[in-house]
Amino acid sequence: MTGMGIISAIGNTVAENRTSLVEGKCGITPLEMFPSKFWGKIPVGEIKISTEALKEKLNVQEHGITRTTLLALHAIEEALADSQLTNTQLSSFDTALIGASTVGGMCLTDEMYRDSQKDTPGSEYLSSYDYGAVNMYLQKRYSMKGAVNTIHTACSSSANAIMYGARLIRSGRARRAIVGGVDSLAKFTINGFNSLRILSPEVCTPFDEDRKGLNLGEGAAFLVLEKESDVTGKKIHATLTGYCNANDAFHASSLSEEGEGPYRVMKDALSNAKLDAAEIDFINAHGTATENNDQVESVAMLRLFEKVPAFASTKSYTGHTLGAAGAVEALYSILNLTGQELFPGLHFKKPIPRLGLEPVQAHKKTPLTHIMSNSFGFGGNCSSLIFSKA
Amino acid sequence: MFYIHQTSCISPQQTFRDIDINTLHEPVEKKLFAIEPSYEGIPAGVLRRMGKSVRMGVGATMPIFQNYPKADGIIIGSASSGKDDCIKFLNQIIDYDEGMLTPMNFVQSTPNALAAQIGLLTNNHGYNITHLHLGLSFEFAMIDADMMLHENPSHSYLLGAVDDISTHNYYFEDKGGWYKKEVISNKVLYESISPGSIAGEAATVFLVNKTQTASLAKVLAVDSLHSEDEMVLKEKLQDFLKKNLPAGEKIDLLLTGENGDHRLMKYYSTCESQLRDVTIARFKHMSGEYPTATAMGLWLCCEILKKQNIPQHMIKKDASISNYKNMLMYNNFKGMQHSFVLLSN
Lengths: 390, 345
Known about the structure:
The structure holds 2 protein chains of 2 kinds. Chain A is an alpha/beta fold.
């Protein structure tokens, strides 16, 4: 992993994100960036830069570019600069771009509604609603000729984008892969999660007994993965050593009581990395702060680990960034490794009864070698990644 | 490289039961709708709640699942699955002014719903993924299956694709200029010199693994390209064949995704000019245009390999080949995305 870039509610760069994590600074505030009935009411992890300002900052002049695409571009520019990939490398047949987004151009909820009606003229956004539109723009911007793909496994999408990129490299189909995910806040998802009654009216409290649901967030994070033999002399942030994707096969929008999917992915990611459970130093949990997720994830951790390692959910800083969450949290896991430090989980008060698990609650410098990052999604789509110290 | 063992396809043609691909079914108002079966074996209550793409996808999976209940994972390509529910939920948001909405459309709007539903109905805890990169969604699913089988040579996977014509989705594509303005029969689709094609839909599912014995076809290689430049296409295609076509072998059949859109002809001509003494056939008059149409193309390749017979209405150029062995499928999506699939018996 030779490059990383991120934009989220707690910072526009990797460095800003790290500072917020060290200081325990939460980015969740009442919705204010777009008009909605929920304006000023529900807490969200917003990036306080307008879409117009993003366009200007990134020098984007094309028509039909959505906020989702701009956030992705913002993060990817930082990742590319960090890994120092040349333009020739970027546009070669063996450089892949694997991204994920579950909102795509649907952030333009009202425009999409108008364009879906029979007798309206098409807007400039007609081809932007597609989930793949973000990567189509990036492909064109960087003249990429290698594999460019978009993956959807709901809230674990970008964890699978990271895996797919790594597997393209392992199989010899690519020498380097830019991998990650993006989602922006949208009326579509706010209303969707509200209809499921899993939006918290307050700032979310992962793994707390009295948790009231999740907060939505927006963000983008991208990582540059390169073949081990190509990176001699380059700065290496971390190594992706293990991964697994499995299905809970229980329900469309909730996890099984015994956490079969979460248990399997953590267990098989360990065997993929050839590690024992006891070697995991920290888990960046999925930890959405819904009743169902935190209960089930805890049960699965207790099933797998004789002694549950230190863990926390960074969704208490950023909200749930959906299709970006896997990549955002992979990047935070890498920051754990590069800084040899743990960041506190926020807003936790009391452990869930009978489970008794307490997330990390203070910033702490400590030796760390292997970190696990969990992502679970609708449709039972579970994934787990393991990053190791370079 | 992997082998195809079972195939199942619900499409606008007679591909599901009593297969007959010689008779061509025609579109209704520029739309080639799938001929849906009665879906025996799926509980009625479950069936009623499914959107069309999930219903067709599950329906196409069932015959394979019945023969092979223990697949190790589910790999789906779909660019538009769930769009219909997505727009329905959007309508709820607008109509009820962000009030108390029912979550069913929202839950079903996620494009991973088909892979998830198959996992749920077949109690499959294995690898489960959905690729949705426009006209390369199925190709990246194929590459995924290829990599999974390389990593786990004893495994078998359900590899599938689905896309459906929904009312609203049709408007997006129509306004974007991807369907013809004039009403046209699929019998004369390729004579057309106007932009756009006709809409189509299908669900196609394959059982794939590394076992050669009793296989229907061998997928030698799959690759993709994003470019609007024919010269880049030419370079990529030459490189693809050099790398993947075994020495001494030649392509017998080129199956292309030509779709009656005159703007894309330069890409198909570029591809055709790279191959000599080859029969050229087309399939979009059977499938219609949709992002994962190549899955039906692959299904047709398996049929042709098995029966060694190509329906007359598919043939563009007949090279009088007595035995079809090596096939190349080339597809272009909206002038931006190219795909190459090389297969053999």
